From TrEMBL:
Species of provenance: Babesia gibsoni
Full protein name: Peroxisome assembly protein 22
Membrane among keywords: yes
Source organism phylogeny: Eukaryota, Sar, Alveolata, Apicomplexa, Aconoidasida
KW Transmembrane (keyword) present: yes
Pfam families for this protein: HAD_Pex22 (PF22978)
GO biological process: peroxisome organization
Transmembrane segments: 6-26
Alphabetical UniProt keywords: Membrane, Transmembrane, Transmembrane helix
Amino acid sequence: MLEDNRDSMVVSIGIVLLSLVFFLYWHLRELRRLRHHHYGHYDEESESTKRKTSISIFANDLIFCKGTLDLQVDNARVLADLASKCSLYLFIQVENEDDVEVILQELEQCDAFKGELKKHRVLFSHTSSGRASMVRQLQPMVHVESNVTVANAIDGRIANLAKFKVTEKTAHDDPDKAVTEDGTVFVFSAEDVVDIIQPFIVLT
């Protein structure tokens, strides 16, 4: 009698467990279907973004006239176009909050945000040490930097570091002066920086 009761209890428990498994399976399938129906476009965009290499660039020396915040439109557009090939973050150093608004307006006016460069990925800092901290937190696949102090602060703390220095066209054309002993690459324009980054731009 006890064995019959035990067998009956085991069967009942088995039925309950099977029912629970079936219910959970059906419920998860419905959630997946509803999520795809309502958020499918967002998921696809997120997956596309995840596949792109994250790259950050200190842009002051590339998109502004030397010693000013006067935008060099051609160079700004070159970097903006780069965002179609990678998850691009631009770091810009400013002295005050007013500069932030002016720079964003200038970038918008030159259609820098018409493509895949996102406004929230233009990151501002007041100091070089602040930028170094932000880069370490961001952890891009490669960061492109022209400031020696920042480069030293993040070297070994991120996956890849590319150092550059803007120079005159004559020096840039001389092969013997193209790269320094510490790996700093002399560039003339934003297009030269894109050439440095190109090997890192891969879709996974």
